[in-house]
Design goal:
Number of helices: 11
Number of domains: 2
Structural class: alpha+beta
CATH class of the largest domain: Mainly Alpha
Strand content: 5-15%
Oligomer: single chain
Helix content: 40-55%
Shape: elongated
Distance between the termini: 44 Å
Order of helices and strands: EEHHHHHHEEHHEHEEEHEH
Strand order of the largest sheet: 5-4-7-6
CATH architecture of the largest domain: Orthogonal Bundle
Number of strands: 9
Radius of gyration: 28 Å
Length: 338
């Protein structure tokens, strides 16, 4: 909802028409893919292939990384951000872990004949380029000192990693009804909902106009039709219907009026910083704990995400033992973050 309609107590957030307290999280495999990097327009490292006769600082399966390549890989993952000296050691450790796991997943894909077809690649490339002309896209790459061929190579690897992880996680069974029920019983307070109501309104610039419209409503005219024709608030297009809001979400002057009203009643004229309001509370929901049927999708998503996280970490541990990972610690100690 726009500033003409509602504001939070802090004045820093605005409501949407159909706002409700609960937002069911959508599980995406990307949460577990630390390696599907989104900084695709930043300078690429040259660690996309083996590097001549340089001694490798790291060997991950068939992948050999020189000191220079490894450093540029770390810079790429870090997005070129400066690294605080006091945190450099820990950050470097985490970056090394991500790089190892990234190439382990690629090795797993090769071993299990998982690949990105040209059709898949072109479909994803088209989606990325959707908002760019061909010339603009190339300029963006060039401005970031990115070689288009190397960028496409990294994109292929990125898509491969995502595909491998998706296929691996698809093996995980969804939580059973019994698991969902047990979670709900143990965590009921997580699903406590505040008092809520659904209302519509007409917002006018002047008190006289609002009073005239209120008189017309009392005379039998339809408030929704009047809202669509005369209200200055954006929800006028949907006959003034705002949607569900919770106690505590509204500007105090609006909240006091709305939550003291009975459903179906028309309010007196309420003045706020947005104008002069006429409210009608359409329906209410008391505070309380939501029932299992209402929260099942959210619980299922949570439990599935937890299963994925546990399985994913165990799977990575297995990859680390199945593929050769060799690190020259002396050389690695000489690789410094920028």
């Amino acid at each position: 909802m726009s500033g003409l309609a509602l504001q939070t107590k802090t004045g820093q957030q605005q409501m949407t028409h159909g706002m409700i307290r609960k937002k069911i999280r959508v599980m995406t495999h990307g949460l577990y893919c630390l390696f599907c990097w989104t900084l695709i327009f930043l300078p690429l490292g040259c660690g996309l292939s083996d590097h001549g006769g340089d001694d490798p600082v790291m060997v991950i399966g068939s992948k050999h990384l020189s000191c220079d390549a490894l450093k540029k890989e770390m810079e790429f993952i870090g997005g070129g951000m400066p690294v605080p000296v006091k945190h450099a050691k820990e950050i470097k450790k985490q970056l090394i872990k991500q790089i190892i796991d990234y190439y382990l997943i690629i090795e797993y894909g090769k071993q299990n004949n998982i690949s990105i077809s040209e059709k898949e690649f072109q479909r994803n490339l088209k989606e990325i380029k959707r908002e760019y002309s061909e010339d603009t896209f190339r300029k963006v790459l060039l401005q970031g000192y990115v070689d288009p061929a190397l960028w496409e190579h990294r994109l292929r690897n990125q898509l491969l990693v995502g595909k491998v992880i998706k296929q691996v996680l698809e093996k995980i069974a969804s939580p059973s009804y019994e698991e969902i029920k047990i979670y709900f019983q143990k965590n009921r307070n997580e699903f406590r909902s505040p008092e809520m109501l659904r209302f519509r309104q007409i917002v006018c610039k002047s008190k006289r106009e609002a009073e005239n419209l209120r008189d017309r409503i009392h005379a039998g005219e339809d408030m929704g039709k009047l809202a669509k024709k005369y209200s200055i608030a954006p929800e006028a297009e949907v006959h003034g219907e705002v949607g569900w809001v919770a106690r505590g979400d509204l500007d105090e002057s609006m909240e006091d009026a709305l939550f003291s009203m009975q459903s179906g009643k028309i309010s007196p004229i309420i003045k706020t910083s947005f104008g002069y309001h006429i409210f009608e509370v359409m329906s209410r929901r008391p505070a309380g704990i939501e029932g299992l049927p209402e929260v099942m999708p959210e619980i299922e998503s949570r439990l599935l995400r937890q299963k994925h996280e546990v399985f994913y970490e165990k799977w990575l541990e297995k990859l680390r033992s199945n593929f050769k990972v060799k690190v020259n610690q002396d050389m690695l100690n000489k690789v410094e973050l920028s």
